[in-house]
Amino acid sequence: MTAMTQAPDLFRKAVAALQTVRPRPEMTLEAVRAPQRLAPWAYALSCETTDPADVPASGRLVLLHDPEGQEAWHGVLRMVVFVRAELDRELATDPFLPTVGWSWLTDALEHSGATWTALGGTVTETSSARFGEISGPARTDDLELRASWTPLDEHLEPHGEAFLQLMSSVAGLPPVGVTLFGHRQA
């Protein structure tokens, strides 16, 4: 993150809004170094699931700001998300997985009350097999979601909440306040 004292007011307000978002107990959320070449101003959050009973998932939410705007953005702010999660083999072979993965994002944005335009992205399924001296499981299956959208104002709390909801869905966490059978809360 560049020096906030020199940042445009709109960017400072947008960052402050994202800093109010609080993750649920099964997640860690922290500010991390943002990409420097995508826009004049950038801020990033990293999120990981921490409950070993759930699907290992990690993600990053990046806020970009270009006071001049960028044509493809249709605005001066842009949200970028990258989420990755390990999958069990059965789920990885589901032909509807990309569609379901995308709906996790769109549903989270809609349910959070976020307002946006120019939403686009990809959902990728990967399978990796390990050979030789590489340690780890013989095979892994992963889901990756990459997307970006333009918020319609600097009130980004709903966008941050949508990111956390997306992370919950990808990790298979139950709704807040719901305990799955076989899981105990400490």
DSSP strand content: 35-45%
Main beta sheet: 6 strands, antiparallel
Using the CA coordinates, give the radius of gyration: 17 Å
Broad structural category: alpha+beta
**Cα separation of the termini:** 36 Å
User: Based on CA inertia axes, which overall geometry fits?
Assistant: globular
Strand order of the largest sheet: 1-2-3-4-6-5
Number of strands: 6
Q: How confident overall, as mean pLDDT?
A: 88
Give the % helix.
10-25%
SSE order: HEEEEHHEEH
Q: What is the tally of helical segments?
A: 4
Low-confidence stretches: none
Description:
This protein has 186 residues and is of the alpha+beta class. The chain is 25% helix and 37% strand. A six-stranded antiparallel beta sheet has the order 1-2-3-4-6-5. Strand 3 and strand 4 (75-87) form a beta hairpin. The radius of gyration is 17 Å and the shape is globular. The model has no long low-confidence stretch (mean pLDDT 88).
Task: Write the topology of this structure.
Elements: H1 9-19, E1 27-32, E2 41-49, E3 57-70, E4 75-87, H2 89-92, H3 97-112, E5 116-129, E6 139-151, H4 157-171
Antiparallel strand pairs: 1-2, 2-3, 3-4, 4-6, 5-6
Helix pairs in contact: 3-4
Provide the descriptors you would attach to this structure in a database record.
186 residues, alpha+beta, six-stranded antiparallel β-sheet, 25% helix, 37% strand
